[in-house]
Amino acid sequence: MDEDERPLSPEETLRLIEQQETVVAKRLIPDMTLHHLAWGAAWFVGFGAFFLHHGLSGTPYARIPITVAMALLTGLMALAMLVSVFTVWQLRSPVHGASQERGSLYGLTWFFGFLAMWMIAVRFGSLLPGPERSLLWASLSMMVVAILYMVSGIVWPIRPMFVLGAGVAVLNAVGTAAGPGWHALLIAVGAGGGSIVTGLVSRRRRRR
Amino acid sequence: MTPELDPVIHAQARLRVVVTLNALAQGDQITFPGLKDLLGMTAGNLSVHLSKLEEAGYVEIVKTHKGRTPVTYVALTRRGRLAFEEYTAAIRELLGTAGTPAPGDT
């Protein structure tokens, strides 16, 4: 107790405040590095396979059956989802209240976003030829991702997440206009690469 | 003309408690063990400081149950937040850095 009661100089006090704030932030704010790296890898490899399957002018660059490309993308996204869940779980946050509730509602928002997307794609996808159907699924899902990344970037606020969301939104729009091959290429390189860069940026920010 | 420093906050251990609670979003509470870990204090020591802060009306301690296990949640009150704001303003005034960001030293 003696040490505790020793009066601190204003400089020491300010330093103590900053140190403790850093400790708290490190403990309570999840480290999004692995999340971004996992999603980056999933998009890069998964959409990369779609790109090779479609080709830019409709001629495939590699004989990858659509079912294989689909299985690859879905499998990798499922793994990335596990990483995301783990990111939040390992925090085992001791905080309870408004922000916990906000987190649950945020999770629900993802669910509703993908439910809507799923319904639209199932209903209208059957009317489209193969490559267009695959583009419908890809563009709708990336739209949901882009919007929710931007929203979470604003709410929490995490600027790199907002920037990533905005970038994905632009690439998604451009790629959809250009066609299935271009869309897969832009998302693989832009969104996949962008997510990996975002992961590295958030890692650097956290180390600082 | 030195500004008055709040004696309840101006003690190393209690200052760290207040800083930690102030970092939580408004409307959030933290479990007692969670707070203890963040501070690296013993439960006894933390309890003593929390009761002093509670007496001053700066923290709110809620004892409840999660299933059958008792849980204690701690949060800063509005008054506590305000007191901490005034305290940091006073410290910055003493340093003559009011309004400018704190230096990011090592």
Automatic annotation (TrEMBL), chain A:
Transmembrane segments: 36-56, 68-91, 103-122, 134-156, 184-202
Keywords noted in UniProt: Membrane, Transmembrane, Transmembrane helix
Official protein name in the record: Uncharacterized protein
Native source species: Planobispora rosea
UniProtKB/TrEMBL annotation, chain B:
Ranges of residues in domain Winged helix DNA-binding: 21-95
Domain of life the protein comes from: Bacteria
SUPFAM superfamilies membership: Winged helix' DNA-binding domain
InterPro entries referenced in this protein's UniProt entry, alphabetically: ArsR-like_HTH (IPR011991), WH-like_DNA-bd_sf (IPR036388), WH_DNA-bd_dom (IPR027395), WH_DNA-bd_sf (IPR036390)
Gene3D superfamilies: Winged helix-like DNA-binding domain superfamily/Winged helix DNA-binding domain
Coiled coil: none
One Pfam family from the record: HTH_34
CDD domains: HTH_ARSR (cd00090)
Protein name, UniProt field: MarR family transcriptional regulator
Organism: Planobispora rosea
Lineage of the organism: Bacteria, Bacillati, Actinomycetota, Actinomycetes, Streptosporangiales
